[in-house]
Design a protein that fits this description.
By secondary structure, the chain is mainly alpha-helical. It is built from 40 helices and no strands. Helix content is 69%, strand content 0%. The longest helix is centred in the C-terminal third of the chain and has 30 residues, at 605-634.
C-alpha cells in the first residue's frame, strides 16, 4: 500500500524530535531508537530528487542534536550520513547554515581530528563520521565558501590530506579546489600550510586520479598569485607537473594533462620562474599536447610559448618542429586560438625561411583571409600585423595583391578603432610600393588623403607591436631597394630616350629612397629642400617652388621617381660646376638675375595674373566636382535628383531613361530645371 510522502516526512520529524527530547541512557535503548530514526531518514533522502529534499529542511536541527549528543557512539555517524544526503538541496544547506550547523560540524571535527587521526586510514565509525562531515564541507564550499572557511575548514582539510586515506584525501582536496576559486581564500590556504600536502597528493605514483585532479585544481589557482607561485615552485611542483603532462593512462588523463598545462601557463607569466619550466621533458609534453590536445589546451600552450621565448637552448630547432602545427591551427582553430597563433607567428617566427614556408607550404594567407572575411572589422588588429609581418619578404606582397587582399581591406578603413585604421593605411602604403595603380584604383575618394603624407597625423601602433611594426617597415623598404622596384618602372624605350642604363639609375634610386623616409613614393617640397642641402645649393622659397613646378609634369605637386630622374639628369646643366657654378650663383641667381626675373614678371604682369586666376578657377572647379562626386556617392537625395535630371533630358531628346545613356547625354543645365 502506497503511503503519502508527507506522512512519511511527518513521522520522521516526529521520531527525530522525540529522540532528541528524551535523555539517551547508558542502556542503549534510546540510542537504538535514535540510530533507527537517523538511518530511516538517510535511507529515504538518498533516493529522492533535489526538489523533494526541500521538504526535509526541518529535520536539520534535530539531526544536529543527535550528532553532538555522543560523537563516540555509532548514532553520530548515522546523523552525519543524514546531513550528508540533505546537502544536495540548497534549501536544506541554507537551513544548516542558519541553524549554526557549520559550527557544530567544526567542533565535532576538531575533537575527532585531535584524538583519532590514526583511525582515518581504515574503515571504522570514526572514519565514517569524518567522511560524512567532510562531504558536507565539500558541498557547502561550492556555494558558500567563506562560511566554511570562517569555521576552520582549511585547517581540517590540511589534516585530512596528511593523515587520511585516499577517499578522505580526495574529499579534502576537492573542497580546497572549490575554495581556491577565490584568490583571497588561496592566500589563507598558503597561511595554513596547504601547499606541501597538495603537491604530495598530486603525485600520480602515490594517489589516484581524483586526488590528482583536485590537487592540480588548487595548484592552478595558487599559481595565479605570483608571490605564492614562487613558493609553490620552491616546494617542488615542477616535477609533479612534468608527470601530469605525461599521464596517458586512466579515465581522467586528458583532464589531468590540461590542469597541468593551466598551472604551467600561470607560472610562465612570472619572469623569474620561466627558465625552471623549460626542461626537456616539459617541452616534449607541450609538443605532444599541441598535436593531440583539446583546443583549450592548445590555447594555453600558445601563451606558454610566447612567455618562455629566449629561455631555453635549441629554441630555433624546437620552434621549427612546431611550425606546421601552428600554421594548421590558423586554419582549423577557434577564433581566439587563431588570433593567438598569429601573435605567435609574429613574435617567434621572424626569419624569411619561416615566412616563405608558412605562405607557400602552410597556406597561411588563406587562413588570414578567412579570419578577415568572417570577423567583425573591430577585431582585425592581429591579422593586419601578421600581413605586415609577412610583407617583409619581397615576394609576398605580390602574392597578396594577386589574391585580392588589398580589396578585402577596404572596409577596415572605416573601423572605429584608430589602431586598425592606421595599420590598414600602413599596409596600403606597402602595397603602393608594388602596384601603385591597383591601390589608387580601388581607394575610395573620401579615403585618398590617407595615402598622402601628413606630418600632423602620426601613426598609431598597438602596444604589443609598436617596435615590430617599425622594424617591419624598415625591412620592407630595404627589400624593395634590393629588388630595384623603382628602376623597374622604366621601360627599355624610356631608358634609351633618356640615354641612361639601369646601373646609372641605382645611385639615383638610393638617393630617392633616402629622401623618401616615409616610403610615400614621391618627394614633396620639404624633401627637395633636403636634396638642395645635400648638394650644397642655396635657393630661396620661390626658386625651390619653381624648380618643383618645372619638373612636376603631371601637376600633382610632388615628384615621383621618373620626374626625379629627369631633374637629376639636368642637375649639372642647371647648377653647373666650377666657373659655371660661380656664374650661376652670382649672375643668374644673384642680384642681377633676380632683378631681371622681377622685371620680366612685371613686364608680363597681365599674362601672369591671368594664369594665376585660371589656376585658381581650375582648382575650385576640381574641388567642386570632388564634393559633387561625394554627395552623389553618399547622399540618397542627391542621387535621386541626379536621376530626375537625367530622366528630363532623355525625354527632351525623345528617349526612354536608362543608366546606359548617362555617358552619352549632354551635361545638365542647372538653370533650366528647378525643384
Amino acid at each position: 500500500m502506497n503511503r503519502n510522502p508527507m506522512d512519511v516526512i511527518n513521522e520522521l520529524v516526529l521520531d527525530l524530535s522525540l529522540v532528541t527530547s528524551l535523555p539517551l541512557g547508558p542502556n542503549g535503548r534510546d540510542y537504538v531508537r535514535a540510530s533507527a530514526a537517523a538511518s530511516s531518514m538517510a535511507n529515504q533522502t538518498s533516493k529522492m530528487d533535489k526538489k523533494d529534499l526541500r521538504n526535509y529542511e526541518w529535520t536539520i536541527p534535530p539531526v544536529l542534536n543527535i550528532l553532538i549528543v555522543d560523537i563516540d557512539h555509532p548514532v553520530a555517524s548515522k546523523a552525519a550520513l543524514a546531513l550528508r544526503t540533505l546537502m544536495a538541496s540548497r534549501i536544506c544547506m541554507n537551513r544548516l547554515i542558519e541553524s549554526n550547523g557549520l559550527q557544530t560540524i567544526s567542533k565535532v571535527l576538531d575533537v575527532m581530528l585531535a584524538k583519532r587521526t590514526s583511525e582515518l586510514r581504515y574503515a571504522n565509525d570514526t572514519h565514517s563520521l569524518v567522511e560524512h562531515l567532510a562531504v558536507c564541507y565539500r558541498e557547502v564550499a561550492r556555494f558558500n565558501p567563506w562560511d566554511i572557511v570562517n569555521v576552520g575548514c582549511i585547517r581540517h582539510c590540511v589534516i585530512l590530506m596528511k593523515n587520511g586515506d585516499l577517499s578522505l584525501i580526495a574529499i579534502a582536496a576537492m573542497t580546497l579546489a572549490s575554495l581556491s576559486n577565490d584568490l583571497d581564500i588561496c592566500k589563507q590556504m598558503f597561511s595554513y600550510g596547504a601547499i606541501k600536502p597538495l603537491i604530495t597528493i598530486t603525485d600520480g605514483d602515490t594517489t589516484n586520479d581524483a586526488c590528482m585532479l583536485a590537487g592540480l585544481g588548487c595548484i592552478t589557482q595558487l599559481c595565479k598569485i605570483p608571490e605564492i607561485a614562487v613558493r609553490v615552485v620552491q616546494q617542488g611542483v615542477v616535477p609533479i607537473l612534468e608527470k601530469a603532462l605525461h599521464r596517458y593512462h586512466g579515465h581522467n588523463n586528458q583532464s589531468i594533462r590540461e590542469k597541468g598545462l593551466y598551472s604551467l601557463g600561470s607560472l610562465s607569466g612570472i619572469p623569474s620562474q620561466r627558465k625552471l619550466l623549460c626542461t626537456l621533458s616539459m617541452l616534449d609534453g607541450i609538443k605532444t599536447e599541441l598535436q593531440h590536445g583539446t583546443m583549450s589546451a592548445k590555447l594555453t600552450i600558445l601563451h606558454i610559448l610566447m612567455n618562455i621565448k629566449g629561455q631555453y637552448e635549441h629554441e630555433r630547432d624546437y620552434l621549427l618542429s612546431l611550425r606546421e602545427m601552428i600554421v594548421t591551427l590558423v586554419q582549423t582553430g577557434t577564433w581566439h586560438v587563431k588570433t593567438i597563433c598569429m601573435k605567435v607567428i609574429c613574435v617567434l617566427y621572424r626569419e624569411d625561411e619561416d615566412r616563405e614556408y608558412m605562405v607557400k607550404e602552410g597556406q597561411l594567407i588563406e587562413g588570414i583571409i578567412t579570419v578577415i572575411e568572417t570577423k567583425n572589422r573591430e577585431m582585425q588588429e592581429v591579422p593586419l600585423v601578421l600581413l605586415l609581418h609577412l610583407s617583409v619578404l619581397h615576394e609576398i606582397p605580390f602574392l597578396l595583391l594577386k589574391k585580392k587582399v588589398h580589396k578585402l581591406l577596404i572596409p577596415l578603413l572605416y573601423a572605429d578603432d584608430p589602431i586598425i585604421r592606421e595599420l590598414t593605411v600602413i599596409l596600403y602604403r606597402v602595397f603602393l610600393l608594388y602596384n601603385e595603380s591597383a591601390i589608387e584604383k580601388i581607394m575610395p575618394k573620401d579615403k585618398e588623403y590617407l595615402l598622402k603624407r601628413d606630418l600632423y597625423n602620426p601613426q598609431l601602433y598597438g602596444e604589443e607591436y609598436g617596435g615590430l611594426i617599425q622594424e617591419y617597415l624598415q625591412q620592407i623598404v630595404d627589400n624593395r631597394r634590393e629588388y630595384d622596384y623603382l628602376i623597374r618602372l622604366f621601360t627599355e624605350e624610356e631608358l634609351q630616350t633618356l640615354q641612361l642604363t639601369q646601373e646609372e639609375l641605382v645611385p639615383l634610386q638610393n638617393l630617392f629612397m633616402e629622401l623618401d623616409a616615409e616610403c610615400c613614393g614621391y618627394l614633396g617640397i620639404d624633401e627637395l629642400k633636403m636634396l638642395l642641402v645635400l648638394k650644397g645649393e642655396v635657393l630661396d622659397k620661390e626658386e625651390v617652388a619653381a624648380l618643383l613646378k618645372e619638373y612636376d609634369t603631371d601637376a600633382s605637386g610632388v615628384l615621383d621617381f621618373k620626374e626625379f630622374v629627369l631633374m637629376m639628369k639636368s642637375w649639372d646643366t642647371r647648377f653647373g660646376k666650377g666657373l659655371k657654378k660661380f656664374y650661376n650663383e652670382t649672375i643668374r641667381r644673384g642680384p642681377i638675375g633676380k632683378s631681371l626675373a622681377a622685371l620680366g614678371k612685371w613686364w608680363n604682369k597681365d599674362s601672369y595674373e591671368y594664369g594665376q586666376i585660371l589656376e585658381i578657377k581650375n582648382r575650385k572647379m576640381k574641388l567642386k566636382q570632388n564634393n559633387r562626386d561625394l554627395e552623389l556617392k553618399f547622399s540618397t537625395t542627391e542621387l535621386f535628383k541626379e536621376k530626375r535630371e537625367r530622366a528630363i533630358l532623355t525625354r527632351e531628346y525623345g528617349l526612354v531613361y536608362s543608366d546606359n545613356y548617362e555617358k552619352t547625354l549632354p551635361p545638365i543645365n542647372k538653370r533650366s530645371h528647378r525643384y
